[in-house]
Amino acid sequence: QVQPVESGGGLVQAGGSLRLSCAAFGRTLGPFSMGWFRQAPEKEREFVAGLNRRDDSTTYADSVKGRFTIRRDDTRNSVYLEMNSLKPEDTAVYYCAARNADYVGRKSREYDYWGPGAQVTVWQ
Q1: 78-83 vs 92-99, strand pairing mode
Q2: 65: buried, middle or exposed (CB in 10 Å: 19+, 13-18, 0-12)?
Q3: Is the Cα dihedral 6, 73, 66, 107 positive or negative?
Q4: In sequence order, which residues have a C-beta less than 8 Å from that of residue 25 and are 6 or more positions away?
Q5: If pLDDT is split at 50, 70 and 90, which confidence band does 106 have?
Q6: Residue pLDDT, tens place only, 25-75
Q7: 95 CB contacts (<8 Å, ≥6 apart)?
Q8: Of 118, 102, 103, 111, which Cα lies nearest the Cα of 22?
Q9: Contact, 79 vs 71, CB < 8 A?
Q10: Using one digit for the tens of pLDDT, what is the confidence trace for 72-102?
Q11: Pseudo-torsion of CA 99, 103, 104, 108, nearest 10°?
C-alpha cells in the first residue's frame, strides 16, 4: 500500500505559477509510474501528466504541454507538478495517482492509489 498526499494548491491569477507536490506515506513512490489528473466541476476526471517508472520519460495532455512539468525527487519521496502560464480553464481539483506498471496510463481506472486531491483556482 502507498498513500499519496497532494499539497501546494491554492488561488492564483491567470498567467501565474503554482507547484503541486505529491508525497507518499507508507512506501516509496520509486516503484510506481506516477500520474497527475484533474477534475473540474461537472466534468470527468482527466489525465494531465505522467512519469514512467521504467525510464523517467514523461507525457502530457495537449492542453498543458509546454506549460506543465512533472518530475520526481526520490530523495524526498515526492513527485511534483510545476504549472506555469496558468489559465482559468486549469481550475480543478488535482489528484496524484500511482500505478504499479512500467508506463503511465491516461485513464483513471489504470491507477492503483490516489491522493485526496488539491484545489487549484485560477482567476482572471
Answers
A1: unpaired
A2: exposed
A3: negative
A4: 2, 3, 5
A5: very high
A6: 778 998 999 999 999 999 999 999 999 999 999 999 999 999 999 999 988
A7: 6, 36, 37, 38, 39, 45, 114, 115, 116, 117, 118
A8: 118
A9: yes
A10: 998 899 999 999 999 999 999 999 999 999 9
A11: -60
Cell numbers 526520490: residue = 74
Q: Give the C-alpha separation, 22 to 33, whole Å.
A: 13
The position carrying cell 512500467 is: 102
Closest residue by Cα to residue 90 from 118, 121, 116, 62: 121
Per the structure block, which three cell numbers stand in for 67? Answer: 506549460
Q: Return the bridge partners of 122, or none.
A: 12
AA letter at 14? A
